[in-house]
Amino acid sequence: MTDIPHLTVVNHPLVQHKLTLMREKDTPTAVFRQLLREISQFLAYEVTRNLEMETKRIETPIQPMDAPTLAGRKLALISILRAGNGLLDGMLELIPSARVGFVGLYRDEETLQPVQYYFKVPDALDERMVIAVDPMLATGNSSVAAIDLLKKAGAKNIRFLCLLAAPEGVARMKEAHPDVPIVTASVDSHLNDNGYIVPGLGDAGDRMFGTK
Ligand SMILES: O=P(O)(O)OC[C@H]1O[C@H](OP(=O)(O)OP(=O)(O)O)[C@H](O)[C@@H]1O
Ligand SMILES: O=c1cc[nH]c(=O)[nH]1
Ligand SMILES: [Mg+2]
Questions:
Q1: Is 38 domain-assigned?
Q2: Across the chain, what does the average pLDDT equal?
Q3: Closest-approaching ligand to the CA atom of 141
Q4: For residue 66, is it within any domain?
Q5: Which positions bind 5-phospho-alpha-D-ribose 1-diphosphate (predicted)?
Q6: Residue 37: inside a domain, yes or no?
C-alpha cells in the first residue's frame, strides 16, 4: 500500500538545471558524478516524503516536547549496479542509518535483456521501505528484473528512484509492478533503436565512471 502517485516527476528548477548540465555531452566525468550526487538528494527528499513517523519525548533547552522522529525499522536503499552507485552516495549522506543492498545487472546490448551477476540485500526487507535506485529507466527490463528479485527476497513496500525515464519503461514498470511508485527528474521522449533514452544523456554508467 502506498499513498504517493505511480509517477512523480521532480521538476524543481535546481534539479532541472543540474540535469541539463548532466545531459551536455562535454560535461566531464567528475562534474557529471558530482551533479548526480546533488540531484540524488532532491530525489531522495521526494521519495521519502511520507515516511512513517512517530514521536519521541525530548528536552529542548526551554522545555520538554514530543518531537517527530522516523518510525521503527526504516529504509533499505538498493543500488542497481553499476550506475545505481552514483545515486547511492548522496542518498546515504541524507539517510546515514539506511541499510544498503546491491543488485548486479547489466543490459545485454543485443537483446536488451538484463543479465544478473550479483545480489546481496539487508535482512528483514519485508519490514522496511525499500528504495531501488538506478539513474536510467529505459526499456524497464532491468528495473522490472531487479524488483522481481527484491519481491522474491521479501520486500513488500518498494519505490523506484531514477534520474531519467523513457515512457516505454514507465509503462513496463506500471504493468509489471503497479504497486511500485517511480520518482524521476524527467520522462524523456522515447527510446531509439538501440534502446537508449532520447534525448537522454547517453550511457550513465560510462559517463559516471569514465569507461568507453
Ligand atoms: O531499462 P533498461 O532498458 O533495462 O536499461 C536501463 C539499464 O541500463 C543501464 O545499465 P547498464 O546495463 O548499462 O549497466 P551499468 O550500470 O553497469 O552501466 C542503466 O543503469 C540501467 O540499469
Ligand atoms: O539511455 C540509456 C539507456 C540505458 N542505459 C543508459 O545508461 N542510458
Ligand atoms: Mg551502462
A1: yes
A2: 95
A3: 1
A4: no
A5: 82, 107, 134-142, 203
A6: yes
Distance between Cα 93 and ligand 1 center (Å): 24
> Given 2, 108, 206, 211, which residue is catalytic?
206
By alpha-carbon position, which residue is closest to atom 2 of ligand 2? 196
Cell of 211: 569507461
Q: Is 184 a catalytic residue?
A: no
Task: Mark whether 107 is an active-site residue.
Answer: yes
Catalytic entry in 37, 73, 99, 203: 203
Q: Is the pTM of this model over 0.80?
A: yes
Q: Containing domain of residue 23, as a range?
A: 7-50+74-209
CA of 136 to the centre of ligand 2 (A): 6
Has residue 180 been placed in a domain? yes
CATH number at residue 133: 3.40.50.2020
Q: How many domains does the chain have?
A: 1
Q: Pseudo-torsion of CA 135, 145, 5, 68, nearest 10°?
A: -80
Residues 192-204: tens digit of each pLDDT: 999 999 999 999 9
